[in-house]
Design goal:
This is CHAD domain-containing protein. This protein is mainly alpha-helical. 83% of the residues lie in helices and 0% in strands.
Length: 294
């Protein structure tokens, strides 16, 4: 699906309508694929599509009616939340358990953990599909209708001036804003990591303690927002944004994603182990009651 053709002199609201319409089409196609087949990559693409739309809504919030912006923000956040549990299990299975089992194929513990994780992942996927159905059937058509209304509003006399501002000027201003927020979050994480290094137990990397700090999640969100904004608006942005800055942000986003995925994997493994212990306790108790006393 070809991206929309952006022009530097087109209105900012026109650009939002074009970009959002293309992203909604891709999102709908990914949802259909997700329902037809069980491929973790389809879920990954769906989450990327949602992130891009969320970044787009943030970038163009100044030209959107307040109620529309708030509605898009809530609906996209709810869809993202619905995909979280299933994606977490995919990350654990594909990134941790299956590679570990390849290296240690005779491990009964790894095999048991993988079997339990697969069962929980299937349950999470079933719940996710049920939760996403109303969004596919009602929410996406609603968002498309709102885009059609916004498209008509672009050329109306009462359109707010910023909605008609040239995309070139508007895009630079918003990308600079996103960059400032990203740099602010980087400083917060650096401070949190420094404090964590003093409080961390010996032998434990300070980044592990910093993972629990909300500033790390805020930095990742800021990095994704800036990256997707640059990618979407690349045709009207200066080369300095499309080159070195984009590469730097993408590298950091990948690093943060790997760290947070590792944290999710540790949390889910702890959940699986705790469940195994709980299941074993009744068996131990039964054995103890049946055993003769000497």
């Amino acid at each position: 699906m070809a991206p929309p053709h952006l022009k530097r002199r087109m209105g900012a609201l026109d650009a939002f309508v074009a970009l959002a319409a293309a992203d909604l089409d891709r999102l709908a196609a990914t949802l259909r694929a997700l329902e037809r087949r069980d491929h973790p990559e389809d879920l990954h693409r769906l989450r990327i599509g949602l992130r891009r739309l969320r970044a787009l809504r943030w970038m163009f919030a100044p030209v959107l009616p307040g109620a529309v912006s708030a509605r898009w923000r809530q609906m996209l956040a709810d869809m993202m939340a619905a995909t979280g549990p299933a994606r977490d299990w995919d990350v654990l299975i594909d990134g941790t358990l299956q590679p570990a089992l390849v290296r240690h194929p005779r491990s009964p513990v790894l095999r048991a953990l993988l079997d339990e994780a697969m069962m929980r992942r299937d349950t999470a996927r079933t719940i996710m599909l049920a939760e996403l159905t109303p969004y596919r059937e009602r929410t996406l058509p609603l968002l498309r209708r709102e885009l059609a209304i916004l498209q008509r509003h672009c050329n109306m006399p009462d359109a707010i001036p910023v909605a008609r501002s040239p995309l070139k000027k508007f895009a630079r201003k918003r990308v600079r804003r996103a960059r400032r927020l990203w740099l602010a979050r980087k400083r917060e994480v650096a401070a949190a990591t420094s404090q964590a290094s003093e409080a961390t137990e010996p032998g434990m990397p300070p980044e592990f303690a910093a993972l629990a700090n909300p500033s790390l999640h805020a930095q990742r969100i800021a990095a994704k927002r800036l990256r997707y904004a640059i990618e979407a608006l690349a045709p009207v942005l200066p080369r300095r944004y499309r080159g070195r800055l984009l590469r730097k942000v993408a590298r950091q986003q990948q690093g943060l994603g790997a760290a947070l995925d590792a944290a999710v994997a540790r949390r889910l493994i702890a959940t699986l182990l705790a469940s195994a212990v709980d299941k074993a306790e009744p068996a131990r108790s039964a054995d103890g009651m049946a055993s003769p006393a000497y």
